[in-house]
Amino acid sequence: MGKVVGYFIFCLGFLFSINTVLAAQLTPEQRASKLAGLVSYNIGNPALAADQLEVAARAGDPDAQYYLGEIERHKTMLMNPAAHFWYVSAARGGDLFAMLRLIYSNDDDSITSKPPARSKTTVQWRNVALRQARTKARAGDSEAMLVLYFLDGNLEWLVRSARAGLPESQFKLARVYQIGGGVFFNSTDRSREIRKWIIAAANGNHVPAIRVLIKELKDYQREESTEWARNAIRLGDLDTTFEYHDIDMGEEHRSVSSYGLLSLIADSDVATGIAEKTARKMADLRKKMTPQQLQAGAAFAEEWKKTYPPLSRFLPKYGY
Fold this sequence. Notes:
By secondary structure, the chain is mainly alpha-helical. The protein contains 19 helices and no strands. It has helices at 2-16, 20-24, 28-42, 46-58, 62-76, 81-92, 96-103, 109-112, 122-138, 142-152, 155-163, 167-178, 187-203, 207-217, 222-235, 238-243, 254-266, 272-288, 291-307. Helix 13 crosses helix 14 (207-217) and helix 14 packs antiparallel against helix 15 (222-235). The radius of gyration is 21 Å and the shape is globular.
């Protein structure tokens, strides 16, 4: 349990890391709104997340500004004036991922002429990002090494970041090797490295890597696959919680934990599709459970909320 909670704290630190001075200026209410916004964003409710994140974004928090930029960009899957505004705001606060978005955006005058005024060109943002990321990388910042990989495509930066222990980079490196990146003597060596980095990322509680192991091990090492599924559920993975809600979680009656886990999804602001499927599963369970078991399921869910992180789809900070 301590490992899971520790990883949750690490994730929050990763999300909040890039301008601690500005983040420290948030009031308790603004911080709470920001955290709620990140939770909403990661369960796939961008409309609610935008309202919650804007409180901290207006107060100058770069992380909240970046995620508002992501929400606006996802509306069209292209850079647009609203997204550009928030990315520039975040980049000015030192957010390297916001700089990446500005560097690789469409440098169209109809977008970049919008406020905030006097924004840098893509070339200027690239120079700023390189300078800041190199400084941090020299100090051992594994996240900055990942940013440098995104900036220049040099695989060595990704390798260094993975070796420095960043689970996101470890999983990314495995994926790069899977599609033919890197140089290996033979396919066996390549497969060995892919496996090594996926396991390393999973052991670092990187949920996308854990999902891969759950699927790969399901047919021939079922108990190990199930244990990884339990770990993903404890970490708050929404999809694994839905798919594996009925696995043994240590309760006398499995239906109790199953109902409790489904209750967590039902109580979250998830997308309509999964909410409807969850409601149907809970209705089927209620027909088979006693009132005492239903009460125990509700108590299970309440205790779970106090112990483990909130549900999430574990979206990458710098994704599509």
